[in-house]
Structures are given as C-alpha cells and as structure tokens.
Amino acid sequence: MNDPEAYPTIVALSSAPGRAGVAVIRLSGSRVRFVLETFAGVIPEPRRAALRQLRDADGEAIDQALVLFFPAPASFTGEDVAEFHVHGSRAVLARLLVVLTALPGVRLAEAGEFTRRAFEAGKLDLGAVEGLADLIDSETEWQRKQALRQMEGALGSFAAEWREALLQAMSLLAAELDFSDEGDVSGPLQEQALALAGTVLGSLRKALGSFAMGERVREGFVVVLAGPPNAGKSSLLNALAQRDVAIVSPVAGTTRDALEVRLDLAGLPVILIDTAGLRDSADPIEAEGVRRARNLLARADLALALRGIDSEPYQMDGETPVLRLATKSDLAGTPLPGELPISVKTGAGIPDLLAAIIERLHAFGRSEPALLTRERHRAAVADAIMALERAVSAEHGQGELLAEELRIAVLALERLVGRIDVEDVLDRLFSGFCIGK
Ligand SMILES: Nc1nc2c(ncn2[C@@H]2O[C@H](COP(=O)(O)OP(=O)(O)OP(=O)(O)O)[C@@H](O)[C@H]2O)c(=O)[nH]1
Ligand SMILES: [K+]
Ligand SMILES: [Mg+2]
C-alpha cells in the first residue's frame, strides 16, 4: 500500500464543484507529507486544523487554507490523508489541482478511488461501502437513516454473527463425525449444530422480511396515476408535485408519454408517474401511450385509480394494490363505496389522500431501518436460507450432507459482505461514486 508505483497519491475535489464559500481538496497516499511540506510549509499536528498560506513551487501564493493531516493508518483510506479547505472559487481550485498533479507520483483520483482504498485497507466492508454510496445519494429521511445504519456496518455485523454461529455448528458436526466411523451417527453434537442452524435460519428470514421496504426506500416507491381520459390524472400530478409538470386540458387523451416526479412523503421517497388515459384508441400514438400505462401499472407498488365524480365507474384489473379516488369532488356527483373524494380545484381531500398513500406504503414494512436494501443482499440471504432449510430438514444421521449445506450457507454470507466474489460488485458500485469519494 505504500508502494508509490502501485498506489500513486491521489487528489480530488471532495466537495461539490462550482462556486462556494469553502471547498475541500483531499489527498491520499505516500506523497502526502511531501505535499504538505511543499505547499503548506508544514506538516500540521494530526487531526488539528492549521491556517496556512498555500504556495506553489515558485513561492507564489495560491490561497489561504485550513490544512488537516490524518496520518496512516488512522485515516479514511488507511494511508496518509490531507485535506485543504480552501475558498470555493473555480480559479483557486483549478490552480491548486494543476500544481498538485504536476508533482511526480500525484494524480487525480478516479470515481470512488478513496473509498476503494478504504475498502482494500479493511476500513469498510462491502455493506458499509454500499451504505456510504446510498448516504451520499440520500434525499429523504428514511433514505438517510437506512443508509447511515448500513454505512456504520449493520449488515456486516449481522453477517459476522450468522457466519460465526454456522462455523461453530460445522465444528460440532466435525467433532461428531470424528466419533463415528461410518459418518452416519446422529448424536447430541449434531442436535446442537441443528439448533444453531435453526436460530440463524430464523434471523435470516427476519432480515429477508425487511427487503421489500429496504429496496423501495433505497430506490423509491413507484406510484402510478391511472384511469380513463380526463379523470384528472395530470392535474393531480401537478398538485402533488406543486409544480406545473404535465399538460392539463379538457381534451380527452392529452397525456401520451409517462411523466414522473419525485416526491418526499413523510420521509419516504416516491416516484409518482402520470400516464395516458386508459381507453381503446384508434390513434396509434395514443394506443402506445395506453400500452405503456398498462405496463407501468403492472409493476407499480401502488396504483391511484382515478374516476371523475361526474363520470361512469370503470373496472381496473391486475394485481397491483389500488387506492380509488373520486376526482373533481367540487362537481355534482357521489363517491362510490371505497372511493376517496378529492378536488384539485379546491384542495379538498388532498391531505387525506397523502395520508392514505403513506399508510399504504408502510404496508411494505414498518420496522425501520431495513437491513437488506439491494437485490444482491436478497439473493445472498435467500441462498443461505435455502441451504439451511435443506440442512434442518435432512434425515437424521446425514452428518456429511448437513455439513455441506452449512458450508454453502457460510459462502453465501461471505458473498453478502464481500469476503469473496467482490470485484464485479465493486466495479459497478464505484463507477457510480463521485470523484472525490
Ligand atoms: N372542476 C374540476 N375540474 C378538474 C379537476 N381536476 C381536473 N379537472 C379538469 O379536468 C380536465 C382534465 O384534466 P387532466 O388533468 O388533463 O385529466 P387527465 O386524466 O390527465 O386526462 P388525459 O391525460 O387526457 O387522460 C381539465 O379540464 C381539468 O381542468 C377538479 O378537481 N375539479
Ligand atoms: K385531458
Ligand atoms: Mg393527462
């Protein structure tokens, strides 16, 4: 890790680009002390801010900066790390990055490279890296809480406990097998091993139960506005987004393309999608819009089925959970049983609608924050569960089979936290990171 060839010192703007009061430039690697001496004239006391004038090699001032030094190994990456807190001006940042990268052995960081080094130094496990990525992307309260817990290693510590228990079960089985010459004797040690596996199985099932919520909190709940033309779908989208996003008109068949807005509903991230009014149309463009609407509806987490209170009832089929709305409640008409009356014109019923949507979304899981948040997590835990289910249902006396299933479950848990098969996951993950992270 200290080899400057294999690990050049990396530098990047770690705060957001553009004009700002303060910007943070971060460096990591074996040349950090040299950089500090050269540009700041001093290596500050570890973790203490020092106000310094930064000067280039000719002694010309670049900016005043707060300078921080985090010596290896107690740093984010495990290497020597420095931060320059400078004025967030494009000219200061451009000049500083030019002079820093002009030094031999110093280059600009790639996306996620600081975090990759932290991972390689064992500072973060895969779950924590994923949590960090999610925290940076988080926009709502639920997303922030879930990501923070994951960044702090929740998944890693659960996985370590499960793995520990299964390894213990495996050693009990091995001891049992040593006592028997046929490898087919069931005894008290096997019973103990099975009990351990059963406990882990219960805990894994509980974690799996958190996935539906965890994934949706991470990616957003998909809520689709559906109903016949002119039911008021686009009007409702605009009202909920509090922006003029979609075209509204009295012409039936106005909306063709699906339009989406992101909402924060009591901390839950929602992707609200407006769609073409559902009807048989001879117009090929409108018909395509209706086809897309039906597809979106089929994979939505919740459908808002709209009917104008002055219009005919209509049938909406499919598996998607539905909340029924009678729109335009300011006009003459009566809501049908089960319909919530709303009016975009007067605002009547809109707070009730929001409360009803939030209530429906909570049906995906009430306990927060979730432990499993990505398909990758679900797949690994499901594999471990299947192996343990086979283990606990094995015939008595099949000690070797049992051990094999436990081994499969342990491997799945090692995949979960990135002990094995990690490269592909990392490449995909880091390509989505910002440059200075
Ligand atoms: N009185 C009244 N009119 C409304 C209300 N909401 C929508 N409208 C009117 O109903 C008409 C249709 O509204 P849209 O929002 O375009 O309906 P839509 O369901 O998106 O229609 P398509 O995109 O054609 O399927 C427009 O003239 C709206 O002004 C309401 O709450 N009260
Ligand atoms: K319309
Ligand atoms: Mg519309």
From TrEMBL:
<dbReference type="InterPro" id="IPR018948">
    <property type="entry name" value="GTP-bd_TrmE_N"/>
</dbReference>
<feature type="binding site">
    <location>
        <begin position="230"/>
        <end position="235"/>
    </location>
    <ligand>
        <name>GTP</name>
    </ligand>
</feature>
<keyword id="KW-0547">Nucleotide-binding</keyword>
<feature type="domain" description="TrmE-type G">
    <location>
        <begin position="220"/>
        <end position="362"/>
    </location>
</feature>
<keyword id="KW-0819">tRNA processing</keyword>
<keyword id="KW-0479">Metal-binding</keyword>
<dbReference type="Pfam" id="PF01926">
    <property type="entry name" value="MMR_HSR1"/>
</dbReference>
<dbReference type="InterPro" id="IPR025867">
    <property type="entry name" value="MnmE_helical"/>
</dbReference>
<feature type="binding site">
    <location>
        <position position="249"/>
    </location>
    <ligand>
        <name>K(+)</name>
    </ligand>
</feature>
<dbReference type="InterPro" id="IPR031168">
    <property type="entry name" value="G_TrmE"/>
</dbReference>
<dbReference type="GO" id="GO:0005525">
    <property type="term" value="F:GTP binding"/>
</dbReference>
<keyword id="KW-0378">Hydrolase</keyword>
<keyword id="KW-0460">Magnesium</keyword>
<dbReference type="GO" id="GO:0002098">
    <property type="term" value="P:tRNA wobble uridine modification"/>
</dbReference>
<comment type="similarity">
    <text>Belongs to the TRAFAC class TrmE-Era-EngA-EngB-Septin-like GTPase superfamily. TrmE GTPase family.</text>
</comment>
<dbReference type="GO" id="GO:0005737">
    <property type="term" value="C:cytoplasm"/>
</dbReference>
<dbReference type="GO" id="GO:0030488">
    <property type="term" value="P:tRNA methylation"/>
</dbReference>
<feature type="binding site">
    <location>
        <position position="255"/>
    </location>
    <ligand>
        <name>Mg(2+)</name>
    </ligand>
</feature>
<dbReference type="GO" id="GO:0046872">
    <property type="term" value="F:metal ion binding"/>
</dbReference>
<feature type="binding site">
    <location>
        <position position="251"/>
    </location>
    <ligand>
        <name>K(+)</name>
    </ligand>
</feature>
<dbReference type="InterPro" id="IPR027417">
    <property type="entry name" value="P-loop_NTPase"/>
</dbReference>
<comment type="function">
    <text>Exhibits a very high intrinsic GTPase hydrolysis rate. Involved in the addition of a carboxymethylaminomethyl (cmnm) group at the wobble position (U34) of certain tRNAs, forming tRNA-cmnm(5)s(2)U34.</text>
</comment>
<protein>
    <recommendedName>
        <fullName>tRNA modification GTPase MnmE</fullName>
        <ecNumber>3.6.-.-</ecNumber>
    </recommendedName>
</protein>
<feature type="binding site">
    <location>
        <position position="26"/>
    </location>
    <ligand>
        <name>(6S)-5-formyl-5,6,7,8-tetrahydrofolate</name>
    </ligand>
</feature>
<feature type="binding site">
    <location>
        <position position="234"/>
    </location>
    <ligand>
        <name>Mg(2+)</name>
    </ligand>
</feature>
<dbReference type="GO" id="GO:0003924">
    <property type="term" value="F:GTPase activity"/>
</dbReference>
<dbReference type="InterPro" id="IPR006073">
    <property type="entry name" value="GTP-bd"/>
</dbReference>
<dbReference type="InterPro" id="IPR005225">
    <property type="entry name" value="Small_GTP-bd"/>
</dbReference>
<feature type="binding site">
    <location>
        <position position="83"/>
    </location>
    <ligand>
        <name>(6S)-5-formyl-5,6,7,8-tetrahydrofolate</name>
    </ligand>
</feature>
<feature type="binding site">
    <location>
        <position position="254"/>
    </location>
    <ligand>
        <name>K(+)</name>
    </ligand>
</feature>
<dbReference type="Pfam" id="PF12631">
    <property type="entry name" value="MnmE_helical"/>
</dbReference>
<feature type="binding site">
    <location>
        <begin position="249"/>
        <end position="255"/>
    </location>
    <ligand>
        <name>GTP</name>
    </ligand>
</feature>
<dbReference type="Pfam" id="PF10396">
    <property type="entry name" value="TrmE_N"/>
</dbReference>
<feature type="binding site">
    <location>
        <position position="437"/>
    </location>
    <ligand>
        <name>(6S)-5-formyl-5,6,7,8-tetrahydrofolate</name>
    </ligand>
</feature>
<keyword id="KW-0342">GTP-binding</keyword>
<feature type="binding site">
    <location>
        <begin position="274"/>
        <end position="277"/>
    </location>
    <ligand>
        <name>GTP</name>
    </ligand>
</feature>
<keyword id="KW-0630">Potassium</keyword>
<dbReference type="InterPro" id="IPR004520">
    <property type="entry name" value="GTPase_MnmE"/>
</dbReference>
<comment type="subunit">
    <text>Homodimer. Heterotetramer of two MnmE and two MnmG subunits.</text>
</comment>
<dbReference type="InterPro" id="IPR027368">
    <property type="entry name" value="MnmE_dom2"/>
</dbReference>
<feature type="binding site">
    <location>
        <position position="230"/>
    </location>
    <ligand>
        <name>K(+)</name>
    </ligand>
</feature>
<dbReference type="InterPro" id="IPR027266">
    <property type="entry name" value="TrmE/GcvT-like"/>
</dbReference>
